[in-house]
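From the pipeline queue, job 12 of 40. The input is one protein chain; the requested action is below.

Action: predict structure.
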Amino acid sequence: MNSPTDQPQGTRAPNAVPGPTTSAAPGPTTSAAPGPTTSAAPGSTTGAAPRAAASSADGRSKGNRTDRALGWVRGALDADGRAILAALALLLIAFFVPPIPLKHDTYESLVIFDISQSMDVEDYELGNNPISRLKFAREAAKRALRELPCGSKVGWGAFAGYRTLILLAPVEVCENYGDLLTSLAKVDGGMRWENASEITKGVYWSMRAAKELKSNPNVIFVTDGQEAPPQDPTNILPMFEDLKAGQVRGWLVGAGGYVPRPIPKSDDDGNRIGFWRSDEVKQPGDIIEGSQVRGAEHLSALREPHLQEVARQVGFGYERLNNPEAIARVMLDRRFARREKALTDLYWIPALLALLLLAARFSPLALRGRWAISRGGSRSGMLPNAARSQK
């Protein structure tokens, strides 16, 4: 019988049965079996790879968009882009800048138009087309409105017979520019209430009308100076008792040419029906006793000496309507300026700065100079490389 020490290696004693060692048996080790490790199995990694690839592509796309945006910003912020942006900013400022109250010269005028039939004589030209004295005077007044600074006031009046009537009391030109143009266009022979034309009395009535206005505007009386019926040129009608020379300031503006022209005849509705004949109008011999002047009152020309004499008597200046700027000249007479505070538009300052900035940057002269500089710089930049290559 063999002793226990003589047992072959690898055998166990009866007290070392397999039961206590079952902890290492395959059953307890099933926790390490493939089932619990499925999270790291190849099947799970096949879904993560496409997502990572998509995320990488999306990142590259966003990066490209960002790079393009940064490139656009860098391009916009070069010298030319900065100039354009600055000009746009100045234009925005010009658009929104409000008028600012500033004290400057303003003018107030009451423009009286002679609407008698002699003012229908067409001895002016505008755009190579014949035009009547009255229409030319209206065009001159229209242009004068554009020259007046804001805060100035203008009103319209009409003369016929011997009376002057105010059609529109002086109003501020910038706020009422459209209304002034509309009312001016309606001043014509159709509103004539009498065919007579006693110019001297009309001037006196215009002075009285201006005097009655609290603002005491300057009077601009536009007429050809033809009195109808004719008056003795050596006997000027005395002024009204309530008026004094120089009490009202103003101008007589002589309209018409020096060559006598036939006077158009109009009916009560202002329609042309021919021309006046010599036997249809009163001549000097019919009015002035002992007059030897040959009658030609059916013809009309500028009676400049008569108007100059009337202007001297009332303290007015005299100006001939020889171009469309004549009324603007007398309206803007600095002697009649009134220093007042008025809203002033300053939008033109930033707008002008924007224009100058763009011109300085993009004018042909500036572009040619920049091209010459860049060309010279590129040539000078090549010299070191050439020198190095020669070495």
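Job complete. The chain has two domains: 74-97+346-369, 102-344.
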